[in-house]
Amino acid sequence: MRSSNLLLHLLHHLLQVFLSLLFLPSATPFSIGNNNHAPPTFQIERVTTIEQVLDVLSFRAQSIRHGCDAIDDDESNVLFRQKIRDRMPQSIQRFEVGGGTLIQFLARMMSSNTSNNGVVVVGAVDVRYCHPEGALPSRVHLKNLKVRHGYRRKGIGTALLKAVEDMGRTELDAQAVTLIVERKQNPTAVRLYERVGFVLQEDIQEGFMIQSFIEEISYRQIEKE
Predict the structure, then answer these.
(1) Cβ-based neighbour number of residue 30 at 10 Å
(2) What pLDDT, in 10s, does the model give residues 140-164?
(3) Which of 1, 77, 82, 204 could form a disulfide with 115 if both were Cys (CB 3.0 to 4.6 A apart)?
(4) Number of independent structural domains in the chain
(5) Is residue 135 part of a domain?
(6) 44 inside domain
(7) Is 172 within 8 Å of 131 (Cβ atoms)?
(8) Mean pLDDT of the chain
């Protein structure tokens, strides 16, 4: 039994190595974990199908509910996806898959959830291309970077940021990545952005808000290869 488990562990490890060497632009695998077992693998995908759009929308709805499991069970998730699908013809035009300008990336991981073929979305980000404006160069502007609670601090956010930068460099010839973040209310996100090379470009105080609300436009120069 012990030798059988060792063999399975070795085969699993070899599979992970093979996946890490396989070039898949639309689904790049990453491994996370810090125990002695084979670490779980998540992969970054560019959203190119209606089903992926539904995956991201379901994930966003779950995130809005502060990480609760309200739509994580199979039945609720299926009903939610059907409701969104019914409205899809009116809204799909804004997504890349529908000819729009909103580009999305998502991160997936294996799960016991059966409504999505045994995988769960653990992160997502929205991206738009911006032409040069004022002192800012051509750039990709990212919004709504979210990582599922319980999967944070595992490299998923960093991997999503890298996917955005790679796309901006290779496809759009962008010179920078920009974003807006609530600096005082979201210090964890600020630390992530600073760690991967973002720097403060400009502070904007929205005086019409009830509370003092400081945002920052973060800026990361894309290095040309």
Answers:
(1) 21
(2) 888 889 999 888 889 999 999 999 9
(3) 77
(4) 1
(5) yes
(6) yes
(7) no
(8) 70
Going by the DSSP 8-state scheme, the letter that residue 222 receives in this structure is: P
Token pair for residue 149? 């609670």
Residue 144: domain span: 25-175
Q: What is the three-class DSSP state of 134?
A: coil
Residue 179 tokens read as: 């974003």
CB 24 within 8 A of CB 10: no
**pLDDT band at residue 220 under the 50/70/90 scheme:** low
* Tens digit of each residue's pLDDT (9 = 90 or more) over 111-127: 655 455 567 899 999 99
Tokens of 147: 């990582």
Bridge-based pairing of strands 27-31 and 214-221 is unpaired
C-alpha closest to that of 43 among 141, 190, 156 = 156
pTM given for the model: 0.69
Residue 10, CA distances (Å) to 3, 4, 28, 29, 35 in order: 10, 10, 22, 18, 15
